[in-house]
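User: quick one, sequence for these tokens?
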């Protein structure tokens, strides 16, 4: 008997961004949160986003329009006004070939700061609330950091490997709620790799 080869999930769609103004448009915690909601929901109205984020429909509607202006989101079929659903044209954003000038550096720094502040707050919130989690989830959760010596080419390979592991392994579950096991929950995965510029 010949075993069937397991069908791999299709690669996530990626939008490559190098324009500093487009990067700055995302440098707001609500806008990053909206992208995550749309990734999880597939599509959602401003009202639904507001329910999930604890925000107002007016605020979410404003930020969704700003995101649409820079190509991060697009209207989904059906609905009008605040009942119009939005969706992601691409599942991941990749910032590359950003100009190495004052504007590009400032845009990169602004986006990284908002992103890292949001991630740090999430980790702190989990640490404070983890006692409420079932033991199986507490034991499975992990935080790690390490220090190693690599070349730029090796660091790029590590980055590619992490993207393949994090973004692709369960990509079908992001697209199709029916592909999610009954006991699956949204889990935030974060990895970083950058040259150490100072100690302490």
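Assistant:
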């Amino acid at each position: 008997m010949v075993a069937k080869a397991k069908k791999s999930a299709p690669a996530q769609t990626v939008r490559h961004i190098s324009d500093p103004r487009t990067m700055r448009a995302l440098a707001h915690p609500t806008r990053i949160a909206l992208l995550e909601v749309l990734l999880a929901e597939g599509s959602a109205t401003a009202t639904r986003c507001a329910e999930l984020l604890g925000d107002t429909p007016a605020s979410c509607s404003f930020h969704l329009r700003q995101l649409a202006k820079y190509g991060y989101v697009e209207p989904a079929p059906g609905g009008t006004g605040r009942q119009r659903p939005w969706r992601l044209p691409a599942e991941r954003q990749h910032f590359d070939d950003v100009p190495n000038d004052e504007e590009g550096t400032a845009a990169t720094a602004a986006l990284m700061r908002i992103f890292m502040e949001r991630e740090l707050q999430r980790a702190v919130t989990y640490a404070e609330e983890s006692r409420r989690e079932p033991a199986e989830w507490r034991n499975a959760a992990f935080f790690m950091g390490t220090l190693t010596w690599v070349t730029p080419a090796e660091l790029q390979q590590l980055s590619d490997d992490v993207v393949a592991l994090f973004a692709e392994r369960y990509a079908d579950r992001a697209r199709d709620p029916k592909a999610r096991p009954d006991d699956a929950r949204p889990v935030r995965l974060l990895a970083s790799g950058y040259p150490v510029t100072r100690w302490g």
